[in-house]
Design brief:
The protein is built from 14 helices and no strands. The protein has 398 residues and is mainly alpha-helical.
Amino acid sequence: MFLALSGTILAAVPLCYVVVCPVAAWMLNKWSSKGILLVSTGTVSMVTLVFSFMGFITNNAIYITMTTLIRIVQGFFGGIIDVVAFAVTGTMFPNNRALTTAIVESSLNVAIATGPFSGAILYENLSFLWAFLIPAILVGLVFVASFIGASDVNCKDDTASRDSVKTVVTDILIMFAAWHSAFAQLLLNFYIPILAPYTQEFFSKGPIFAGICLLVNTIGIIVSSPFLGYLMDRYNPYVFLVASALSLPVTYLFIGPAPYLQSFVAPSPDQLLVVLALIGFQMPMACYPSLIIMLDIFKVKHCSLPQDVQNFITSLYCASFPLGACLGVFLSGVMAKYMSFVDSVTVMGYVAILESVLLLIFAARVWWIKRDVINPGEKKALFKGENSTTSSAACYQQ
């Protein structure tokens, strides 16, 4: 009962992220980015403050209702903060969109890696109250700093219409790029719930070792993100996407490793740490190019990139992460009932190979479209992404 309740409360946040991201794009079209940021951070700070006093509630029904509602509010406004952060940094630094995306994503991964650990320390050494009161104070300080120092970056578009949203949503290529980002997160989150039982059973190492494995996984993402983001802004982002399609599924098969690979690589704690570190380094290549590529596809097809389209595509990118995370954890739980850890990650490795085939077809299709758009004398532009300039006289006609 406790685990089911905890899972429901925790799941409220990512599910709200998925729903609210498109709403955040609409808000950016209409209102001040700084105003949206202040309202969101202020609300998150206040509800976290209220959450810190939940430990004093003894009635289970009230506790469940209040904590779930608070987590929904946190997820709603947290999702808005994410979209605003990506939209604002992308607008401020359009020629370094991948790098800014990588920096923001790295900060989120730092929070994910340190949040539960810090919360556990505060809870064990202080109390439930302080475990949430201190984060509420920290978010409040962010609110004050944003009020004093944040610039009001203009992300508005008074000409925004539903037609722009429809154009993006009905574009199979754009939506596939968004899906690929979600699928990468699905792979990343799939093994998280079932890793600790596996390490305990096969290596006689408890949750601490599993936590170290996941920490190494996250550090790989954090360390590689800025460097890869820098390269994506200067070279072809499609190449990084294809590189991840060729390498990530293969690496995934070595998590177990797959039964037929165990004669070459025996399962061991060191093997698991190395494989998860490699996945961490490869994950930015699978996710971060998606935002640039979605913008690039729209720009090539329609010869323009209105601000409302940028906001909406950014919201789709932001929504892809929690969507993939939720699907990964859900599938992990379902498959764990019928298969071992090794078999389940092997099956997901095969699924990743199939998805990579679709990704290669996707990349070939985009290359074909861009080849038709760009003049023969401008072939180098084929090897650039969202920041490339196509011939003003040539636009792709579907």
